[in-house]
Amino acid sequence: MTNPRIGIIGTGNMGRIHARVLASMRLLGGVADLNLDAAKQIANAYGVNAFSDYHLLIKESSLDGVIIATPTSTHASIAEDIAKTHASVKAILIEKPIASTLKDAERVAETLRSKEIAGVVSHSEIYNPIVGRALELIRDGAIGVPRNIIHDRRGFVQPSRIPSLGDVFEDIGVHDFDIMARISQGPAKLYAQCSTESGIFNAGTVLVKFKSGSEHFFHLSRQYAGRARTMDVSGTKGALTLDLFAQIIKVKDLDQEPMAEDRTIRLPERGATIKVYGEPIREVVTDFVKALETGSTPIVGLDDGVAALKIVEAARESAKTSKVIDIDVEPRQ
Predict the structure, then answer these.
(1) What pLDDT digit, counting tens, does each position of 161-189 carry?
(2) What's the start-to-end Cα distance of the chain, in Å?
(3) Dist. CA 237–CA 252, nearest whole Å
(4) 6-124+283-300 is classed in which CATH architecture?
(5) Residue 253 per-residue DSSP state
(6) Which residues in 100-222 belong to E strands, given as ranges?
(7) How far apart are CA 188 and CA 185, in angstroms?
(8) What is the rounded distance in angstroms from the CA atom of residue 144 to the CA atom of residue 213?
(9) What pTM was computed for the model?
(10) In the chain, pLDDT over 70 holds for what percent of residues?
(11) 126-278+310-329 has which fold?
(12) Residues 318 and 123 sit within 8 Å (Cβ to Cβ)
């Protein structure tokens, strides 16, 4: 079977990462960027053609699928344009988020479905093997019923890049909002507060309290001098502590001595520490290729992208009005 040909639209930071991954899989068919010189730099590195017009990229490179890695505000319009114009494209991977607004997200999802185009949204943290392993542990009852979950996602983004990325909720919050929906579901109350950079929400906190009893607290920032990606999941029987960078999970039982040393042993035994290696973006692309070739349901599909935007918009409303917002979190698989 011939390998599919996949092109990349947008050669910024994420576009370059996708190009490297696709090239290593021998699937890169070409790149496009309004800045042709930037596109040529990537194209020359991997021996493919560069274009300033994504329509020419698709036509002249005979692409089966495309990855949209352009500024967030353009995701929906480009995806819709391709779906309506190029029957040859069978799958589209959209860098997170699927769109800047819920209205746009719902429209692009409907357009892709109507054209029978497979859609994948790059909530890459869901593809982090350590997150998948933690969700398995939670489903298997390793810590009992989850009660208090702390999501800490902080780093630094140059102020000049912020307008192209959108606010902190859509840019980095979508990762943890999607993870939340795979742990806790149903009616909830949401409260958010935020600080701004050039009028754009750039750092803040979000609290979601579910009617079922679980609580999720999010610390989101793009103005932190360092990098933090952690989760702490406390349940009725124990707790999981995740370092998403180091890809380590520590498991403690509720009756374990607080100062007890963790032992590196196989789960589900007590005091387990698991280290799982993997590159999330490569997992995203692999899932995308599988959906393209077989029509399989992706781990993060169009509905997941839309569901995350619902929480994003609730957080925006709360941050703007200082009010508690009623939400209903749809379960994700």
Answers:
(1) 999 999 999 999 999 999 999 999 999 99
(2) 31
(3) 9
(4) 3-Layer(aba) Sandwich (3.40)
(5) E
(6) 118-122, 146-156, 186-197, 200-210, 215-221
(7) 8
(8) 13
(9) 0.92
(10) 93
(11) Dihydrodipicolinate Reductase; domain 2 (3.30.360)
(12) no
